[in-house]
TrEMBL record:
GO terms for biological process: fatty acid beta-oxidation. SUPFAM superfamilies: 6-phosphogluconate dehydrogenase C-terminal domain-like (SSF48179), NAD(P)-binding Rossmann-fold domains (SSF51735). This is 3-hydroxybutyryl-CoA dehydrogenase. NCBIfam families: PRK07819.1. Residues 7-185 form the 3-hydroxyacyl-CoA dehydrogenase NAD binding domain. It holds the Pfam family 3HCDH_N. Belongs to the 3-hydroxyacyl-CoA dehydrogenase family. One of its GO terms (molecular function) is NAD+ binding. Residues 275-298 are annotated as: Disordered. InterPro entries: 3-OHacyl-CoA_DH_CS, 3-OHacyl-CoA_DH_NAD-bd, 3HC_DH_C, 6-PGluconate_DH-like_C_sf, 6PGD_dom2, NAD(P)-bd_dom_sf.
Length: 501
């Protein structure tokens, strides 16, 4: 019998739960919102009023529409009020014991035909379903933050889910104006299984001192074109939730890449949870003083190219183009021996070029990313002054400089290539199609292009070679190119998406 879903319960009215309640109410569906105590209930009401108030002030809703939406949501602290709901979605903290206890209660109070759904980010829907007498009517319905904005809903079916139920829930997601992607029950599903390892990797690289928080955020936003940098996004998701997702991924995979970076635990233990607590990686710090921005004082610059591997230092195409831009901007270019600053437009290790120079302290590595960003790598021998001068010089050339250490991939490659590799591995494992993975990352995380679209744009060989360099440097097995990627490059295939057509 097809479900109608006319009244929906939402348990837990934190950021996600309140957002989910808003989505249903906007679609004309009656909502019963449940919180544990009156204080939490009021905060939940506040989230809904705030979000619809912002839409009102931006002219996206009229006063009457807003009142109608809010009027569709009943607030209560009693689970018993869910007895008439056709569907109940749980959006409580990401702790299995809490979820299992709640589902036992929901199973008791909800009518037998009701569908019980969890918005879990990464925990086993199967294990949650098993606490009920109706595992066939339990699914995952996973929304993305901010729920009213992000268009994806992951519908998670388990081995116990009744035939046809996932399709019904996907139909409901469409009625909400969302795009469903239906998947089986694996930790993190599609999006979090790809997103969190990347965010966790960013946290690990920050700890290792590869670059700064702001430079990493800038690199991924302006260089890779993502809507937010990894630290801004970790703060949005919540560091506690992010930590729990990594734990769940690690428990299932035992992959080093999924083990939460120690800095995440430190922040969570300190109560610095991100936006919801007012401070996480960002927040409550004095703004940077723009007057302290570096001013280039180098009178002469030399540009060298060639990869470190051939180590010639002879100017190649990219280096020549960069030298021309410098000259056009009024900088005097000269021979390496006479230069105050030497810019190596090359791959890492930059140090291999530095040791061949008469003044290695004057050398920085440079990697231009897209139209806006330039990564500036300092070696152990680079003087702070030279790095600062390089940043200023790039600013004059209209590029945002991202400073980093001399490590494979600089910042963007180090973070993006393994992220894309994970997507290839996911596809290779048979868990999801390329189309679903691309859709999920575009609509769930606001990516301008899905991972497979990015792979094709960047070039399969470029990404494969980037991964090889990362693997050679860090010896982390998760950086080894996915066998499929290697094979496609060997076979001379240009578009990975050709495989899916
Ligand atoms: N609630 C409701 N609406 C919001 C909102 C919120 N918290 N934040 C932003 N919006 C709305 C704004 O009102 C605006 O709507 P309008 O165009 O109708 O006026 C629209 O979103 C765009 O907002 P802004 O112009 O203020 O800001 P941006 O253009 O920078 O977009 C963003 C903000 C949509 C958050 C964008 O930066 C983005 O897509 N970021 C990526 C977010 C992401 O990756 N989410 C998924 C995280 S993973 C997850 O949630 C899974 C979980 O299990 C962990």
């Amino acid at each position: 019998m097809a479900s109608t879903f006319e009244t929906v319960g939402v348990v837990g009215l934190g950021t996600m739960g309140a957002g989910i309640a808003e989505v249903f109410a906007r679609a004309g569906i009656a909502v019963v919102g449940v919180e544990t105590d009156p204080g939490a209930l009021e905060r939940g009401r506040g989230h809904l009023e705030g979000s619809t108030g912002r839409a009102l002030s931006r002219g996206r809703l009229t006063e009457a529409e807003r009142a109608e939406i809010l009027g569709r949501v009943a607030f209560t602290t009693s689970l018993e009020d869910l007895s008439d709901c056709d569907l109940v979605i749980e959006a409580i903290p990401e702790v299995m014991d809490f979820k299992r206890a709640l589902f036992t209660d929901l199973d008791r109070v909800c009518k037998p035909s009701a569908v019980l759904a969890t918005n879990t980010s990464s925990l086993s829907v199967t294990a949650i379903a098993a606490t009920t007498t109706r595992p066939g009517r339990v699914v995952g319905m996973h929304f993305f933050n901010p729920a009213p904005v992000m268009r994806l809903v992951e519908v998670v079916r388990t081995v116990s889910t009744e035939d046809g139920l996932a399709e019904e829930v996907a139909g409901l997601a469409r009625r909400l104006g969302k795009t469903p992607v239906t998947v089986a029950d694996r930790a993190g599903f599609v999006v979090n299984r790809l997103l969190l390892p990347y965010l966790n990797h960013a946290a690990a690289l920050l700890e290792q001192g590869l670059s700064t928080r702001d430079d990493i955020d800038t690199a991924m936003r302006l260089g890779a074109g993502l809507p937010m940098g990894p630290f801004a996004l970790l703060d949005l998701i919540g560091l506690d939730t992010s930590y729990e997702i990594c734990e769940a991924l690690f428990r299932e995979s035992r992959e080093r890449r999924h083990a939460p970076a120690p800095v995440l635990r430190e922040f969570v233990t300190a109560g610095l949870l991100g936006r919801k607590s007012g401070r996480g990686f960002h927040g409550e710090e004095p703004p940077a003083n723009p007057s302290s921005e570096e001013k280039p004082s180098a009178s002469t610059v030399a540009v060298v190219g060639g990869t470190a591997a051939n180590g010639t230092g002879a100017a190649d195409g990219a280096a020549e183009a960069f030298a021309e831009r410098l000259s056009a901007a009024g900088f005097k270019t000269t021979a390496v021996e006479d230069a105050d600053l030497v810019v190596a437009v090359s791959r890492t290790p930059v140090i291999e070029q530095a040791v061949r120079l008469p003044h290695p302290a004057r050398l920085v590595g440079l990697n231009l990313v897209g139209d806006q960003v330039a990564e500036v790598a300092s070696t152990v021998l680079t003087s702070p002054g030279a790095a600062q001068v390089a940043r200023g010089l790039l600013r004059i050339l209209g590029r945002t400089a991202v400073s980093c250490r001399d490590r494979a991939g600089f910042v963007v490659g180090a973070l993006l290539h393994p992220h894309l590799n994970d997507a290839v591995r996911m596809y290779e494992s048979g868990y999801a199609s390329m189309e679903d993975i691309d859709t999920a990352m575009r609509l769930g995380c606001g990516y301008p292009a899905g991972p497979f679209e990015m792979l094709d744009r960047l070039g399969l060989e470029t990404v494969r070679d980037g991964l090889r360099a990362l693997y050679a440097e860090y010896r982390d097995p998760s950086f080894a190119p996915a066998p499929l990627l290697d094979q496609l490059v060997t076979a001379g295939v240009r578009s990975i998406r050709d495989l899916s057509s």
